[in-house]
From TrEMBL:
This is Haloacid dehalogenase type II. It comes from the Bacteria. Keywords: Hydrolase. It comes from Streptomyces cyaneofuscatus. PANTHER family: HALOACID DEHALOGENASE, TYPE II (AFU_ORTHOLOGUE AFUA_2G07750)-RELATED (PTHR43316:SF3), HYDROLASE, HALOACID DELAHOGENASE-RELATED (PTHR43316).
């Protein structure tokens, strides 16, 4: 099926549209202003490893489902403990830093441009509440934002991608999943979605064996490629 038959775009959020490590670093430094880069990076890694491990345990059925808010609170507790901070208010504030993530420089303008031509859906592992905060803080524009919480799973579980299929009312092959994470695009491919890899400094690069429909340097490049393939503008529906 030609890419000109794509009817809507589905965007990953964390890492693809917002710089998650930058936001978490800011929260960690606020927790302990004396930290330099050498002290901050191990704490950031501790946070990231906890989230990745616990989401995997949930996907594997080794732990009941918990929304991202709860996992963020766990991660914040671990990081604060490692930093020697035991103030509950400081831990709570650190957990909320997962919702205050800066957009990449091209994100807001890129989404606005793409929204002139396609319905845009966000599809994030962030909880509904966290996604609301993320969208507001980063100024993200959507026609609809979907949280993995509605599937009580995490990407790359197929039920999360199925949310976009159900809400859009479109066949999977008419949706283009856009992400900076090859693992995320592989998950979307398994359900039949088309895929576009967008390079980001913190993403998961494609492997030699990956075959995605588009490869872009950023959202402007993605929009240019879609302009070329679709031959002009059209109004978004929804």
């Amino acid at each position: 099926m030609a890419l000109m038959e794509i009817d809507a775009l589905v965007f990953d959020v964390l890492g693809t549209l917002v710089d998650e490590p930058a936001g978490l670093r800011a929260g960690i430094r606020h927790l302990d202003p004396s930290l330099d880069d050498a002290g901050t990076e191990p704490l950031l890694l501790l946070w990231q490893q906890h989230i990745e491990r616990e989401q995997r345990r949930i996907l594997d059925g080794d732990r009941p489902y918990l929304a991202s808010d709860a996992l963020d609170r766990e991660a914040a507790g671990l990081v604060a403990g490692a930093a020697g901070v035991d103030d509950p208010a400081a831990v709570a504030a650190l957990a909320l830093s997962a919702r205050r993530l800066p957009p990449w420089p091209d994100t807001v303008a890129g989404l606005a441009r793409l929204a002139e031509r396609f319905p845009l859906l966000g599809l994030s592992n962030a909880s509904r509440t966290a996604l609301l905060g993320l969208n507001a803080h980063a100024g993200l524009r959507w026609h609809q934002a979907l949280s993995a919480e509605d599937a009580r799973a995490y990407k790359p579980d197929p039920e999360v991608y199925r949310l976009a299929v159900t809400v859009s009312g479109l066949p999977p092959e008419r949706l283009l999943m856009v992400a900076a994470h090859a693992w995320d695009l592989r998950g979307a491919q398994r359900l039949g979605l088309r895929t576009a890899y967008v390079a980001r400094p913190v993403g998961d690069p494609p492997a030699a064996s990956d075959r995605f429909d588009l490869y872009a340097d950023g959202l402007a490049d993605l929009a240019d490629q879609l302009d070329t393939r679709h031959g002009g503008k059209r109004s978004a529906r929804g």
